[in-house]
Design a protein that fits this description.
Jelly Rolls; signal; single chain; transmembrane; 39% strand; elongated; five-stranded antiparallel sheet; BatD; seven-stranded mixed sheet
């Protein structure tokens, strides 16, 4: 019976203790050298008045008091914390005591317990609360905030780099030492026109912060992927120990290297269950699929445009559009690819399209059958298949005088070859100019000797031309070089037209490099990570220097999205791209 009573009393006392006011003193270290500094925090869980710090008789106050407040609500319960911070320098060695602090909360005076601190002889490398290096490291923080650490393959995530700075220091300058390399991601930096300083909190304390960079990432592999840190060298102005005649502290400039830290992203694979056969890797939200034609009625041998378009929000640049299927008697040309895509913090938004030129060769009705497009919908976490409607093209007879397609027979061909009555004699020459025969002898005339000797004179030219052709045919290396140069300039023609316009130039340059790899190595855009490109080119016999130059070009295209480039730099990148594509084509 006595034991039960004791347990009951202890439970009652613990319950009362939970609801009591807490006022404690915490120190940054319990043992320090006489040349080091100490930080002491007086923390309370309820707001109070008339705070009285201890006398600090064994210490010199070199900083403070700094005040910070933190308040939050969790499951309907309020959490409050208020802190007064001091930085202290010990006056002597030995076991020193930090006395009691006092606070008045709701009319009751609360006191902290005394804190014992051991002070030893001076240390060689002090790390203390008022050392400039220590203050800089404790007052500035670079943070990488990731929007989603567990995305699906090809789902957009964002990384925002924020620099937090304590109010008691100033940042005079900063520069980037190392940029993160997103080797397993497709990346796009969001332009920040002007850095803006905002107020916020870091670990419950008031801080100023600025957003340095925003990046949109599309993971191209599944599993755990690493986001490398952004590293900066920052010049920090820190209050020192010296004061002027008015008691104000002199500031010291300290160069501090800070990094955002590695972040790990666990990428989920797209589900195999329910995956359509025509799925090509499209991932997004509310995508739309349309197939349109510029006209539905025309005459044979006239042309029309058929457009296959996908629009909405998703990885628009990272999948292939379904090919257009038309009847065999309708001539179809290679499609012209176009994109109108903007990238913001929600990912890619806009549209991509393939435009086909179609030419029906005979009269009749031509159906363009329904087409399907499948993608993984991030809203429903399932696959969706969109289907276009059938389009019927009405083709009339060819215009009078138009040439019929080669090899065409039957009534339609005959009808196309029959001229109209009004024009059936248009090929007969009605106006003649007759001349009498025998006025001047043909034998011995200039025309006679030209026709006689001309073939003889052409024989040496024909021999020289033949030898020239044999020399060109035998020059295998030269032919490969010329063929490679023509191929490079073909792929880079769009980039050349955009020289001088930075954004359009580097977008077309990057697209040309990707299209070349797709045609040469038969890989999809989603497989184009730097490691995969290096692996494939090396396996095809391309030397390491050329592979490095190709990846550097891709890196230049990526950096150019947020780094200004001159016309000279663009021309150099264009010339480098011509040389690299030519070199790869010669080696593969």
């Amino acid at each position: 019976m006595k034991q039960k009573l004791v347990v009951f009393i202890m439970l009652m006392m613990s319950g009362l203790a939970i609801g009591q006011v807490q006022f404690t003193a915490n120190v940054s270290k319990n043992k320090l050298g006489v040349n080091e500094r100490l930080r002491v925090d007086f923390v309370m869980n309820e707001d109070g008045d008339n705070f009285n710090p201890p006398q600090f008789s064994d210490f010199t106050v070199v900083g403070g008091p700094n005040q910070s407040v933190s308040q939050s609500w969790l499951n309907g319960k309020r959490s409050f914390s208020k802190t007064y911070s001091y930085f202290l320098a010990p006056k002597k060695r030995g076991n020193l005591t930090i006395g009691q602090a006092e606070i008045t909360i709701e009319g009751t005076v609360y006191k902290t317990s005394p804190v014992q601190v051991e002070v030893t002889a001076a240390v060689d490398q002090p790390t203390d609360g008022e050392n400039s290096e220590y203050i800089a490291s404790e007052s500035i923080h670079l943070v990488a905030e990731v929007s989603n650490s567990n995305p699906f393959l090809n789902e957009a995530i964002t990384v925002v780099y924020k620099l937090y700075v304590s109010p008691r220091i100033n940042v005079s300058d900063w520069r980037q030492i190392d940029n993160p390399k997103f080797s397993d991601f497709w990346s796009q930096n969001i332009d920040i026109r002007q850095l803006e300083v905002e107020n916020g909190t870091y670990n419950g304390e008031p801080y100023r912060f600025v957003v340095l960079r925003k990046t949109v990432l599309y993971p191209q592999k599944t599993g755990k992927l690493n986001i490398e840190p952004l590293t900066l060298n920052i010049s920090v102005e820190v209050p020192g120990n010296r004061r002027d005649i008015f008691g104000n502290r002199f500031y010291e400039t300290v160069d501090k290297v800070v990094a955002a830290g590695n972040r790990t992203i666990d990428v989920k694979p797209l589900p195999q269950e329910g995956r359509p056969a025509d799925f090509t890797g499209a991932v997004g939200k509310n995508l739309k699929f349309e197939v349109n034609t510029s006209k539905k009625e025309l005459r044979a041998t006239e042309s029309l445009q058929a457009t296959v378009e996908v629009s909405g929000q998703g990885n628009l640049k990272l999948f292939d559009l379904p090919p257009l299927t038309v009847p065999a008697s309708m001539e179809q040309y290679e499609p012209e690819y176009s994109e109108r895509v903007n990238t913001n913090m929600n990912g890619m938004q806009g549209s991509i399209a393939n435009s086909y030129t179609l030419v029906p060769q005979a009269q009749g009705k031509y159906p363009i059958p329904p087409m399907s497009f499948s993608y993984f919908d991030l809203n429903t976490r399932s696959y969706r298949t969109l289907t276009s409607e059938e389009i019927m093209i009405e083709v009339g007879a060819a215009p009078a005088g138009a040439r019929s397609p080669s090899g065409s027979t039957g009534p339609i061909a005959a009808q196309q070859q029959t001229p109209s009555a009004a024009n059936q004699f248009r090929y007969i020459k009605l106006n003649t100019s007759l001349k009498a025969i025998g006025e001047a002898p043909f034998m011995g005339s200039v025309l006679f000797w030209s026709l006689l000797l001309g073939p003889v004179l052409l024989i040496p030219l024909a021999i020289l031309f033949g030898k020239r052709r044999e020399a060109i045919a035998g020059d295998v290396r030269g032919n490969r070089i010329r063929k490679a140069d023509r191929l490079a300039r073909k792929y880079l023609s769009e980039a050349k037209r955009n020289l001088g316009y930075q954004t359009k130039f580097y977008e077309s340059l990057e697209r040309a490099l990707h299209n070349y790899l797709k045609a040469k190595l038969h890989i999809q855009t989603s497989e184009m990570s730097k490691e995969r490109i290096q692996e494939l080119l090396t396996s095809k016999g391309v030397d390491a220097t050329t592979v490095i130059q190709f990846n550097e070009l891709l890196k230049s295209c990526e950096f150019a999205r947020y780094t200004p480039a001159s016309s000279v730099a663009m021309q150099q990148d264009y010339d480098k791209a011509v040389g690299v594509i030519s070199e790869i084509d010669k080696q593969v």
